[in-house]
Design a protein that fits this description.
It is built from 14 helices and 15 strands. It is of the alpha/beta class. The protein folds into two domains: about 190 residues, Rossmann fold (3-Layer(aba) Sandwich); about 180 residues, 3-Layer(aba) Sandwich (Rossmann fold), CATH 3.40.50.2000. The protein has a seven-stranded parallel sheet with strand order 3-2-1-6-7-8-9. The mean pLDDT is about 95. It comes from Candidatus Iainarchaeum sp. Keywords: Transferase. Pfam families: Glyco_transf_4, Glycos_transf_1.
Length: about 375
């Protein structure tokens, strides 16, 4: 099959949707299909992609956050199927018209609702009614990362009518790359964490990812009883300085390490040096929590917000702990509990690794995606 994969952003940009697009494309290519990725160029950094797939990153004519205008998407030809990862403002609608004009089946993966504040909230609602819903009604297939999220999303009514053409396909993890055998002794020494408990956060620190809940995490960490515990925040973005100032304000500046952006090959070591991961997302803009799955694959417990989609991956008491969104006191209590109960955290990590192998291996997910696309072409 000749398949076009498309997303608003793509590695080296640090983000969950681009990462999912990358792995979907890579697994299809590994299965012998001819795959071309279309996305936006976000910087001048070099990135080495697998040789068996083609990646076409273009400078957008217009960009606002993760909304990008790529004119070449209006002329997608010569493919057996187009797979778009949404949200992708401007791109999704161009791919819809292009695929219809060229009679190419369109498969749409709906990753998350966009929430927003102020005028953005109203824009997202208008865009959802005038673009997203009509597109999802007419797409050949619709994919969601979990039925739990789909049933609680803003487009649940549309998805309920897609019985037979709606598929659950979770985001995944490289279980070979992220695994409990990874060592991080050198990194612990480098960061001065030889004897410390390490609480880890991984995520983008920009305005587009406001919902990651970093400010709540900093507030909660200030109430952690054991002062030998350290908070390590991996990620970069235009809110990093703001969060650093908040950490200092709440008295945990000296106990918080802002590691900045970490290269892909080094990221497994950060999971390895941690005792557990915290994903304190504030609203349903967090639909899956890919970093939680990476932590589970690494054999680490996870504390996460009790949100649709996320709560299906992090099982309360089994692979981690769930806390209500924006409950700083509850978040602090959960962190304290795992800091003080090492054996419980380790047991949860073992369970998490088992679940990652069974449910989130990218190879298994790639095979399922191949079957979904093949089903469209067989009609």
């Amino acid at each position: 099959m000749k398949v076009a994969e498309a997303s608003a952003n793509f590695p080296p940009y640090f983000g969950g949707i681009g990462n999912t697009c990358f792995h979907n494309a890579a697994e299809l290519a590994n299965l012998g299909h001819e795959v071309t990725v279309f996305s936006s160029k976000t910087g001048n950094e070099e990135y080495h992609y697998p040789e068996n797939m083609s990646v076409r990153l273009s400078r957008p004519l217009f960009r606002y956050g993760n909304a990008v205008f790529l004119p070449e998407l209006l002329n997608i030809k010569g493919f057996d199927a187009v797979h778009v990862h949404m949200p992708f403002h401007f791109g999704a609608e161009m791919l819809f018209f292009s695929s219809k004009a060229n009679r190419i089946p369109l498969i749409a993966t709906y990753q998350m609702d966009l929430v927003g504040e102020g005028w953005l909230k109203h824009f997202f609602r208008l865009h959802r009614e005038t673009v997203v819903k009509p597109l999802l009604r007419r797409a050949s297939r619709v994919i969601v990362s979990s039925m739990d999220y789909a049933e609680n999303s803003d487009i649940s009514g549309i998805l309920k009518k897609r019985e037979g053409s709606l598929f659950e396909l979770p985001n995944g993890v490289d279980v070979g790359k992220f695994n409990p055998k990874v060592k991080a002794l050198k990194l612990r020494r480098k960061l001065g964490l030889e004897k410390d408990k390490v609480v880890l956060f991984v995520g983008a620190l920009d305005k587009s990812h406001y919902f990651k809940g970093v400010e709540n995490l900093v507030k909660a960490f200030a109430a952690v009883k054991k002062h030998e515990a350290k908070l390590v925040i991996v990620g970069e973005g235009n809110l990093k300085q703001y969060y650093m100032e908040k950490a200092a304000k709440h008295g945990v500046g000296s106990r918080t390490i802002f590691a900045g952006r970490v290269e892909d090959e080094e990221l497994p070591q950060y999971y390895a040096l941690s005792d557990f991961l915290v994903l304190p997302s504030t609203d349903k803009a967090e639909a899956f929590g890919l970093v939680a799955v990476e932590a589970m694959a690494s054999g680490k417990a996870v504390i996460a917000s009790n949100l649709p989609g996320v709560r299906k991956n992090v099982e309360e008491g089994k692979t981690g702990l769930l806390v209500e969104p924006n409950n700083v006191k509850g978040l602090s209590g959960a962190i304290n509990y795992l800091v003080e109960n090492e054996s419980t955290a380790k047991r949860m990590g073992i369970n998490g690794r088992r679940k990652a192998e069974e449910a989130f291996d990218w190879k298994k997910i790639g095979a399922k995606l191949e079957k979904i696309i093949s089903g469209v072409l067989g009609e």
